[in-house]
Design goal:
The chain is an alpha+beta fold and 179 residues long. Helices cover 30% and strands 34% of the residues. The N and C termini lie far apart (40 Å). The structure holds coenzyme A. Coenzyme A (COA) binds next to helix 1, strand 5, helix 3, strand 6 and helix 4. The site of coenzyme A has 22 residues, from helix 1, strand 5, helix 3, strand 6 and helix 4.
């Protein structure tokens, strides 16, 4: 059985592995939710991840298995008890086995514990319909808001001209239980 070390905050020395993890999940050829058919480019650079790790009211959560990173996600405090979940990746060869679901559950706990959040927000490419449906199965709801896809030629080269994000939110904790 593999030694799963569990969740922790990312540290600067994780940056190289994190770049590999995020690029392979978002833009690789393996994995059920890759966006490689929709977007080209590198997705992320180590400098961006280091900035996220150092930024106040922001954190990168990683799940480590043996000495390798299995998954990560970014959490950001957007104020008014709303936390944003992004840069969410599971190693492509490990997808579809419940790791992503565990990361979302853990992110909900950290968002509440670290930022006092009671709402978790994500943005998903509208064209990634399977992904949107998965988040809905996890309890997220579409807000109806659409946001532009920020294309930066190095990190994101759209392969079609209608890419945009849908916004989904999930009410956390007791608020959800009492609804
Ligand atoms: C999205 C992501 C983090 C999910 O991680 P994961 O480990 O695959 O997640 P899980 O195994 O917990 O759940 C996968 C779900 O997708 C479903 N699924 C698996 N293969 C699928 C496929 N080919 N098509 C549609 N759904 C599929 C599973 O049935 C499961 O649904 P369930 O939880 O309702 O049973 C991962 O796919 C990833 O890294 N994607 C690339 C980056 C990305 O898209 N990030 C999110 C941006 S908003």
């Amino acid at each position: 059985m593999k030694d799963v070390k569990g969740f922790r905050r990312a540290v600067p020395s994780d940056a190289t592995q994190l770049v590999r993890l995020v690029r392979s999940a978002y833009r690789g050829s393996v994995g059920w939710a890759s966006e490689a058919d929709l977007v080209g480019g590198e997705r992320i650079a180590a400098t961006q991840l280091l900035e996220v790790i150092a930024r106040p009211r922001s954190m990168l959560l990683v799940l480590e298995e043996s000495d390798a990173l299995l998954a990560c996600c970014q959490l950001e405090d957007r104020g008014e008890r709303l936390a944003f979940l992004g840069t969410f990746a599971v190693r492509p060869t490990a997808q579809g086995r419940g790791v992503g679901r565990r990361v979302v559950a853990e992110a909900e706990r950290w968002a509440t514990a670290e930022f006092g959040a009671n709402v978790l927000e994500i943005t998903v490419l509208a064209q990634q319909t399977a992904l949107v449906h998965w988040y809905e199965r996890l309890g997220f709801e579409r807000t109806g808001e659409l946001r532009p896809f920020p294309a930066d030629v190095r990190y994101a080269r759209p392969k079609r001209d209608d890419l945009h994000f849908v916004v989904l939110r999930k009410v956390l904790g007791e608020e959800q239980a009492s609804r």
